[in-house]
Amino acid sequence: MRASDIKTEDQPFTPSQEDIDQFNRIARRSCSDREAILADMTKLAANCGLAYALLALYRQQVECGFVLADPTVPEGKEKREFMDDTCGVNFRLLWNPHRELRKNHALLIERGVIAQKVDQSKLINRDKDGKPCYLCPANIALQNPKEILFPIEVCCEQYFLGANFAYIDNNHFTLMSAEHRCQRYRKHVLDVLADFVLQTSGQFRAIFNGLAGATIPWHEHFQVTTSAFPVEAIQIRSQDVQYRGAGIRAARPLYYTPVWVVEGNRPAVVDAADRIISEWEKSDQDYHTENVIGSACGEHLRLFVFLRDTRRLKGTGKFGDMASFECGGNIVLSYQPPPGRAHETNERATFETASLNTVRRLLADIAPVVPNVEFA
Fold first, then answer.
1. CA distance 44 to 40
2. pLDDT tens, residue by residue, 250-268
3. I want to staple 29 with a disulfide (CB 3.0 to 4.6 A). Which of 33, 35, 78, 137 is the partner?
4. For the chain, what are the domain ranges?
5. If we measure between CA atoms, which residue out of 193, 187, 208 comes closest to residue 306?
């Protein structure tokens, strides 16, 4: 895709011709023009909003080769959809073999995703095995030559946004804390989700994986994308509503793994969702965790809280752990066992033979038993 062919999907942006030119200029720039890209992004965000500026950065990271494949190009990827009239969700199975490129070390060096040689003495925040943190901005500057981080203030704290080189969906970024701290739930997490999606006027969704699918548990981070999650269309019946009032509605709709949908004004939604998660974690501090998806329409905030148990992370037919994308109705599949490892789960076989019952079973496999939460 040429920079002049860039589309911004169906986003309701109203940029001027000057803004469009700046968007395309960012997308065409070399990663060596890092400072110019960041300066142009700051101007574009001021004129058209944060979301539009992030779309420009993502296109630049695709065009320069940092993102391992173009999400807008269908070659090599497949999709199957299964409408479930019981819960109102149109589930998606996504076959994306490009995800497996993240395991090809030689390719990552060739593409500039990782550096061939790094001064190990300069890397910071090592884990117990001596591996440096992958999400500390200082380490990214040394280890990932083409990655461009965009600084942003969220909830009065410094964060950085970087394109996910092994994307799951289009415009997929990692939002990482500037401070090196553990990926653990606290109420601040919900405030970050809320603040970010509202800063993007609802154009981005944001997700938090507690200890259910978090690949880097020692550094606080979130995933964000412009793609809607199928679960956002979930049917909420009157009998599903557990609480209504004080600026919110909290419901436990019919779904195949336990989910709370809490929506309304930001302070009330954050307070209610925090209560749900806190009670869940307190009921079993060794195993209970969560996945959270945040979205917004205007000032109306929606948090989807999936209650998880670290003993139930895998679903039948899925090779890796299931996290927020899968809970949200996007079942991402990419793994085919190499010769000699036929005993391993073959996600291609899962994709080809899938039905609605496959999706239901995957979600049911990770479903813990959840007691009711009483709202005062």
1. 6
2. 999 999 999 999 999 999 9
3. 33
4. 1-64, 76-370
5. 208
